[in-house]
Amino acid sequence: MKKILILYSTGGMGHKKAAVAILKAFQKKAGGDIEVKNIDTLDYGNSFYRFLYINFYVFMMTRGRWLWGILYHLSNNRIADSMLRRVRQSLDLKNLIGFEDMLLKERPDAIVTTHFILPGIAGAIKRYKDFDPRLYVVITDYGPHSFWLSDHIDKFFIGAEAVLPELVKRGIPEEKVAVTGIPTVEEFSREFDVDELRRTYGLDAGKSTIFILSGGFGVGPLESILLSLCSCRPDIQVMIVCGHNKRAFDNISLLKEKLNYPVKLFGFTDKVPELMAASDLMITKAGGISVTEALNMRLPMILFESIPGQETWNEELLLRAGAAERAGSMKEIPDLVNRLLLSAEAYNSVKAGIDKIRRPRAAETIVDVVLKELGEV
Q: Regarding beta strands 301-303 and 281-284, do their DSSP bridges make them parallel or antiparallel, or are they unpaired?
């Protein structure tokens, strides 16, 4: 029986969600013929490593976005990357206590990662003569930072054709790349009874529904966005997810009574597919998984306050395809809401852009490629 390990990191909720989508696709496709495990690399991280990938990351997303953008672009420089690569490998293996031993004990036939940890240590894994798993990288944004890249990876799965030229420019052979889309669980590509969902969530059928999503960590100026929507011309109602951000949840609980439209407030929830299906428009930052979920649901988006760096790639792809609108300032948000919800032509144009780039079967496609290369198809 073949064994496959799927690696992710809870340093970003999108990495885990992509890993879960791939795991479910393997289970559906292969059943009990293949052993598949999801592993959070941070389970092996020491206190410093966990602080770096969780606490420091959240701090940078909320208080130091400009610094994050600078570090992102500096580390993506080829010269800087060549200098950092060995250091990164050493630090990763040192701070992920027992991680390498776990891989040697599990001895998988293939390792699939939705986080850039694997490219950083791929060289160390490949040095063992009696341990040679196939290594697969699923890039969960629509742009390839150098941390995702390694000569030791057997295949890269990318979200769109537009990502391919950048990979080739960075020295990755085209035959090592498969354009599959970014994986999401199948709930984001199923058909829902929208009328029933709106009744379930207590939504008014006569109002346009706006969904505000801030990611698992609940970052972003959520209260300011809600206040800006008070000047919208359409008759609206809003659903907003705060993720794990309890302070934002409590603040919005107080604020919503002062708004001139109804608000349904959620903390962390696994009902996002239903909330998207019940919505007409989404306001979000351009997280790779979040925007892919919306693409698969054919839900038009207004992008705002995206993180400089990885989310810049995502914004550019969506805007080029006409699959979303971007608000450059808070005051532009109601203007874009008015345009999209009051003009059927503008709204349908965005939906047409979505249809050009959405790939709702990404997880299944990735699984098909891996199984074929392992000789299981």
A: parallel
CATH number of 2-184+360-373: 3.40.50.2000
Q: Which CATH architecture has domain 189-357?
A: 3-Layer(aba) Sandwich (3.40)
Tell me the pTM: 0.92
CA dist list (Å): 64 to 59, 145, 216, 289, 307? 7, 19, 18, 22, 10
Q: Which two tokens stand for residue 235?
A: 């008759």
C-beta of residue 330 within 8 angstroms of C-beta of residue 228: yes
Measured CA to CA, the distance from residue 237 to residue 249 in angstroms comes to 17
Helices in the chain by DSSP H: which ranges?
Answer: 13-30, 47-50, 56-63, 65-75, 78-95, 99-106, 117-126, 164-169, 194-200, 222-228, 246-255, 272-277, 288-296, 310-321, 332-342, 344-357, 362-373
pLDDT in tens, the chain (377 residues): 899 999 998 876 889 999 999 999 999 988 778 999 999 998 998 888 888 777 777 777 767 777 878 888 888 887 777 777 778 888 888 888 999 899 999 999 999 999 988 898 888 888 887 888 999 999 999 999 998 999 999 999 999 999 999 999 999 999 999 999 999 999 999 999 999 999 999 999 999 999 998 765 556 689 999 999 999 999 999 999 987 788 889 999 999 989 999 999 998 888 999 999 999 999 999 999 999 999 999 999 999 988 888 899 999 999 999 999 999 999 999 999 999 999 999 999 999 999 999 999 999 999 999 999 998 76
Residue boundaries of the structural domains of the chain: 2-184+360-373, 189-357
For helices 65-75 and 56-63, give the axis angle rounded to 10 degrees.
Answer: 110
Q: Are 336 and 71 in contact (CB under 8 A)?
A: no
Find out whether 121 and 148 touch, Cβ atoms under 8 Å: no
In this structure, which amino acid lies at residue 170? R
Whether the domain at 2-184+360-373 and the domain at 189-357 fall into the same CATH topology: yes
Three-class SS state of 325: strand
